[in-house]
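Note to self: keep these together.
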Amino acid sequence: MRAKSVLRLAARAGKMYAFDWNAATGVVMRSEKASQILGFASEQIGSSHEQFLASVHPEDRAIFIASNTERTPASPNTQINFRLLRPDGSVLWLEKPRTPSLTSKAGWSG
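Structure:
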């Protein structure tokens, strides 16, 4: 239980959030502070990959998409930097380190 508390504290201090993306269904589950960190109301960010992708800066969408499609079981990890366009017009730089898991039913998760 203490480890979870320490992890929550570190995530809050570092303005980090976690997410799980099911590639087969397109559904994204984000940790509770994700909307606040990203600068969106919870209903604005949505729960689909496509809704989030619409907020990625147009010049960064290709690298964002490639980070999701160019993974293989031999090389599943990705790390990219990209810009997110917030509803208020500001731009947020994000780093997306990712270590997904390969599931037999849904393909990639994470």
